[in-house]
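Researcher: Structure prediction, please.
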Amino acid sequence: MILRDYMRHGAVGWGLLFVGVAALLMGCQTTANDEDEAEMERSNVPFQPATYISRLRQLDARHPTLFNPASTAIWVSSDAAELKMQEEGGLGELDPVAAQVTGNFHVFELHLVSAFHDMSMAADVVDLRGVQVYLETPDGQRISPAQHLRAGSREEQPEGALRRFRRTNIVVFPRHSLWMDDLTLDAVYPAVRLVLETHSSEFYFEWPAVARPGIEQRALTAEEQRWLQRLGYDEFVSRLRALGGMFH
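Model: Predicted structure follows.
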């Protein structure tokens, strides 16, 4: 079912973190009913997205305008974090906390925008309040986040008779299954989605896999570079430090 849908739509402290998200990992569900989907042969090679940037798409939605299409997500791998650092004139190695988090978890920046007519709902959804967030894989897994952090303050500006709200969120997912030590996102997957469900509406960001594992992502466009820098390296690292401090 999900594969067909894809075709249609195109360190002690860290040990404690793994233990702390055990219950969340129990929520990793297999929703596929098709036997072929449930039996995808895993490669034990990490999934590698073809690009870091993804634009919001819509599935079934009672409120199709709840999120603005300008909403954008960034898959912040270690390489993407290094690009952030270089854009700010940084040299050398990543901050140790940034290296540890991006090396052990899948980290996403969600730059969410809403100018929905119900301004209370708009403000809530850009903060991910009342929004179910999960990674969805082609074999039917739904992987819950280990942690969610809000970066900076919510931005607000007039848009006609409405208000446009904007917020950056950092969402962190486990890289390995706690019980089996398997990769949560395997290179066998043709694509991976990050899904947002709220108010009987479903939206998603999607990252296709590279053609072959180990191949570098294509060069970023100027627009993608601007998105990568929207949350600068220093602030990004600061938020990850706050995450690490919660588990020491």
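Model: The chain is about 30% helix and 30% strand.
Researcher: Thanks, that helps.
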